[in-house]
Amino acid sequence: MSGRQHRSDQDQIIEKAMKKASRLTLYLKNGVPVRGKVMAHDSHTVYVMTDKSPTLVFKHSISSVFPVRHPVPGK
After folding, report:
1. Is 23 a member of any domain?
2. Most buried residue, 19, 20, 57, 75, by most Cβ within 10 Å?
3. Alpha helices, H only, 1-75
4. 3-6, Cβ contacts within 8 angstroms, sequence gap of 24 or more
5. The sheet that has 45-49: what strands, in order across it?
């Protein structure tokens, strides 16, 4: 790969959310949602500041990643 490490789609989504300081919902393989702002990440973990406490999530336990959607009034 010409000296560059391939970045996964998951890493790109996490990095974009971190730069924009937007909130994500990380759904874990056991179905538990983790909602918050990504503070940092590396090749194995994601550090998320939730409403309750900072949380370290191992990437191998994440099944899907979604932006937090705010309800639209009147819908």
Report:
1. yes
2. 57
3. 9-20
4. none
5. 54-58, 45-49, 33-41, 23-28, 62-67
Domain with 54 in it: what CATH number? Answer: 2.30.30.100
Distance between CA 60 and CA 44 in Å, rounded? 7
Residue range(s) defining the domain that contains residue 22: 9-67
Question: Would you say the C-alpha torsion 33, 34, 40, 46 has a positive or negative sign?
Answer: negative
Rounded CA gap, 26 and 58, in Å?
11
Count the domains in the chain: 1
**What predicted TM-score, i.e. pTM, was given to this entire model?**
0.79
In tens, the pLDDT along 37-56 reads: 999 999 999 999 999 999 99
Establish if 2 belongs to a structural domain. no
